[in-house]
Design goal:
The protein is mainly alpha-helical. It has a domain at 27-99: Cytochrome Bc1 Complex, Chain D, domain 2 (Orthogonal Bundle), CATH 1.10.760. 45% of the residues lie in helices and 0% in strands. The protein has seven helices and no strands. α2 (29-40) crosses α5 (88-99) and α3 packs antiparallel against α5. The chain is globular and about 55 Å long.
């Protein structure tokens, strides 16, 4: 008899889908957000580097990601089943909740001070090539 080895991620996905599909008493946003901490981190630092940081992220961005996971426009074996149990108001509340958190300390080195000073708009193509910037007011003819 052959026994298929089931990956831990598959078990986790199945468990989360089961929990998400099980009717539960009304939960507040704090309780719903606790389910996110399992992957995205208790203190906002994800458990794995492949998981995105959601603490301090833009509210609209977070809502759109949840909406797209629910609709299937964005696919993920873990997130897909979880968001199926969420209503629009739940997704809006979670997006607001996480957007109000402070971006976590990811223990990454800061960029050198000179990098920030060099910031600014990207150079125009003509400037990169060493030419004068394009002037829309001048008429150019093809000749």
């Amino acid at each position: 008899m052959l026994h298929a080895r089931i990956r831990p991620a598959a078990w986790l996905t199945a468990l989360l889908a089961l929990l998400a599909a099980t009717p539960a008493p009304a939960e507040g946003v704090d309780e719903k957000a606790q389910a996110c901490a399992g992957c995205h981190g208790e203190n906002g630092v994800p458990q794995q580097k492949t998981m995105p940081v959601i603490w301090g992220q833009q509210q609209g961005y977070l809502y759109l990601q949840l909406r797209d996971f629910k609709s299937g426009a964005r696919k993920n074996d873990v997130m897909g089943p979880i968001v199926q149990a969420l209503e629009r108001d739940d997704m809006m509340a979670l997006a607001a909740y996480f957007s109000q958190k402070t971006w976590p300390n990811l223990q990454q080195p800061r960029a050198p001070a000179g990098v920030a000073k060099r910031g600014g708009p990207a150079p125009q193509r003509a400037q990169v090539a060493g030419e004068a910037p394009f002037d829309r007011r001048k008429r150019h003819s093809r000749g």
